[in-house]
């Protein structure tokens, strides 16, 4: 993985010192809250319902064991013994004291981590496929490009005060696990007919109150031109993005109002002008390959004995067998596999891990997974490289810490934002809904009978829980002082991204789990067979049978 | 009826203005304003506390009295006063004898 060079160390240390000074001046009264707020936000410090919240960047979701241990230490020392992994592959701590945050940042810097640009109207943490570097279907590891973008975008003087926040995602595989079409810029690594690497470029995706699927504005951008092109997009956005209305300030609105064709013309014109200007943005091959080397896969020795071992062990342990079915996926090396560590125990809080669990997972990664971990945008942890021969040992170690739930991609693998239990912006709770649905569908047999199904829950229209792209999405709102939950169906964040359709009137907090069960039972009753998953069935059937099941005569009257 | 709430600057702790104009960590001793004049007095104290960098995010919130106890009307404020509903071991509700939000 990437290691800080001298410049990175000096840069992060300087930012820690700067924030220590800013926090000190705030606490002494030298800075007002109005003056301090944009400064703290630029360092990931929010004020939430109960306390401050610190969001720490996990660049493209990649962590080492040492870094995860540091997060455990922070949870234990400065917070309340747990952390919350987020849909942007970051981690949040919900209870830090402002007076302690400079010390936390200094501790993070010691393991090459920071909280810079995890908030504010700037380019946020660049996200990537959580199986990057390991996936069997990958063309190239997207993380070197994500790292180049991270370096380019960190305190970029031109792009630190954009009209609104800006999110970039990169995938290097045909199957999109990074949700690139829901990002401001989505990059899909491609190989041209003559073997050159480059990108298909998508612009203007996003969720929030106005969900949009990104438009592809370039079929193939040579990798050397990456920063020319992203600079061109950002310049067009910076110039024309709506600064008069924060609800219309994201680039998706600019794309929508300008039209994809005209916006593409503007970007291409800026791109051409930039290249002609002599501005030094071309990525030299030598530099790209130098970054590549940081992400070189570990040396994977032949471990063919794993095939026989796994086949024998799965016959003896039904739990292990289920875990293999759901949480273990193919690796590019057949003797190895990638493992999803579910942070979605039945009835538990999606994305939460205790300090003890983080320490234990760090130990497992160090012992069995080449010291490497990932955070997925689906709020799970990933061990990207595990020898099949070690899978049973990994499983047993995860069982011991309560993290072996075999539900990756199933109905209980729910994304949920913090919602009204923590978030100052939320209108309704998300976590409690996720917990109740998880408990309702907790039977492994039932979950596997239902098959692949992504439920995503947001506690307000800002859509941090990605409800718009859930196969079943749930949006919590406040109506007449009570929580009300609106269901959307048919959303998806993969290579065939779609925005879910609102199915009808909302449901009260004590009705929503029954409503979701009705939706699921309707799917089971109407699917063509077990091979037709929920999304495929919905796309074939449309909303009608689900509306009928949920609303009966009310739906027919409408 | 309204009470004045804020977050303490130094650590973000949710606090409520008490009758002696101190900031209480629990809602039960909050000063209740029953008319516009009383609300204005609370707001003036809040503005001064902001100026003196004691608290941030000062707001008046609607409450009712239930069996003599102060209960915010909105769930949001009930959760602030108690803690996350999914973790009863966290927040004010973790204190001995304290009530949860739901």
Properties at a glance:
heterodimer, A: 558 residues, alpha+beta, 21 strands, 17% strand, B: 102 residues, five-stranded antiparallel β-sheet, 2 helices, 5 strands, 24% helix
Structure commentary:
The complex is a heterodimer of chains A (558) and B (102). Helix content of chain A is 39%, strand content 17%. By secondary structure, chain A is of the alpha+beta class. In chain A, a hairpin with a 5-residue loop joins β8 (185-191) and β9. Chain A starts with 5 loop residues before the first helix and ends with a helix. The mean pLDDT of chain A is 97. Chain B is built from two helices and five strands; from the N terminus they run βββαββα. Chain B has a five-stranded antiparallel beta sheet with strand order 3-2-1-4-5, covered by helices on one side. Chain B has 102 residues and is of the alpha+beta class. The longest helix of chain B is centred in the middle third of the chain and has 16 residues, at 36-51. The mean pLDDT of chain B is 96. The interface between A and B is medium-sized, with 30 and 25 residues.
């Amino acid at each position: 993985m990437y290691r800080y060079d001298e410049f990175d160390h000096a840069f992060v240390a300087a930012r820690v010192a700067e924030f220590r000074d800013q926090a000190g001046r705030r606490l002494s009264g030298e800075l007002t809250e109005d003056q301090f707020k944009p400064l703290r936000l630029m360092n990931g410090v929010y004020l939430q319902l109960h306390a401050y919240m610190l969001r720490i960047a996990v660049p493209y979701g990649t962590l080492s064991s040492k870094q995860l241990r540091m997060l455990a230490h922070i949870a234990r020392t400065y917070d309340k013994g747990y952390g919350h992994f987020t849909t942007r592959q970051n981690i949040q701590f919900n209870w830090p004291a402002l007076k302690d945050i400079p010390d936390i940042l200094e501790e993070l810097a010691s393991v090459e981590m920071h909280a810079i640009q995890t908030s504010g109207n700037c380019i946020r943490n660049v996200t990537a496929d959580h199986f990057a570097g390991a996936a069997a279907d990958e063309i190239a590891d997207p993380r070197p490009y994500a790292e180049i973008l991270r370096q380019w975008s960190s305190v970029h003087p031109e792009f630190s005060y954009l009209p609104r926040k800006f999110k970039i995602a990169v995938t290097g595989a045909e199957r999109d696990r990074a949700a690139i079409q829901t990002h401001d810029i989505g990059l899909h690594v491609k190989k041209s007919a003559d073997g050159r690497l480059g990108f298909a470029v998508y612009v203007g995706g996003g969720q929030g109150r106005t969900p949009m699927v990104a438009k592809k504005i370039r079929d193939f951008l040579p990798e050397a031109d990456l920063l020319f092109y992203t600079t061109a997009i950002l310049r067009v956005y910076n110039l024309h993005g709506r600064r008069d209305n924060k609800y219309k300030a994201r680039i998706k609105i600019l794309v929508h109002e300008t039209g994809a064709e005209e916006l593409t013309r503007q970007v291409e014109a800026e791109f051409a002008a930039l290249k002609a200007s002599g501005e030094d943005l071309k990525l030299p091959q030598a530099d790209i390959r130098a970054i590549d080397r940081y992400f070189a896969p570990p040396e994977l020795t032949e471990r063919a004995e794993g095939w026989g071992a796994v086949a024998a062990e799965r016959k003896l342990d039904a739990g292990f067998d289920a875990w293999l079915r759901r949480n273990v996926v193919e690796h590019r090396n057949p003797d190895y596999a990638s493992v999803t560590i579910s942070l979605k125990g039945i009835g538990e809080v999606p994305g939460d891990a205790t300090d003890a669990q983080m320490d234990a997972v760090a130990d497992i990664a160090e012992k069995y997974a080449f010291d490497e971990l990932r955070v997925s945008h689906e709020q799970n942890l990933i061990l990207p490289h595990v020898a099949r021969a070690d899978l049973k040992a990994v499983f047993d170690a995860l069982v011991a810490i309560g993290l072996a739930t075999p539900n990756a991609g199933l109905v209980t693998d729910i994304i949920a934002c913090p919602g009204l239990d923590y978030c100052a912006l939320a209108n309704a709770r998300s976590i409690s809904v996720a917990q109740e649905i998880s408990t309702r569908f907790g039977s492994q047999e039932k979950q596997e009978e239902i098959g692949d199904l992504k439920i995503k829950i947001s506690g307000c229209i800002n859509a941090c829980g990605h409800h718009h792209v859930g196969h079943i999405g749930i949006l919590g709102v406040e109506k007449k002082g009570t929580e009300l939950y609106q269901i959307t169906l048919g959303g998806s964040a993969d290579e065939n991204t779609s925005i879910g359709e609102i199915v009808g009137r909302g449901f009260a907090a004590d009705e929503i789990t029954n409503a979701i069960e009705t939706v699921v039972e309707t799917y089971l009753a109407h699917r063509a067979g077990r091979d037709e998953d929920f999304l495929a069935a919905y796309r074939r059937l449309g909303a009608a049978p689900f509306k009928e099941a949920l609303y009966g005569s009310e739906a027919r009257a409408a | 009826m309204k009470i004045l709430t804020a977050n303490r600057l130094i650590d973000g702790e949710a606090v409520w203005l008490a009758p002696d104009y101190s900031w209480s960590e629990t809602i039960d001793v909050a000063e209740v304003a029953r008319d516009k004049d009383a609300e204005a007095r609370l707001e003036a104290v809040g503005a001064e506390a902001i100026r003196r960098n004691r608290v941030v995010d000062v707001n008046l919130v609607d409450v009712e009295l239930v069996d003599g106890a102060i209960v915010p009307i909105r769930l949001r404020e009930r959760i602030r006063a108690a803690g996350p509903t999914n973790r009863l071991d966290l927040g004010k509700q973790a204190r001995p004898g304290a009530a949860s939000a739901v």
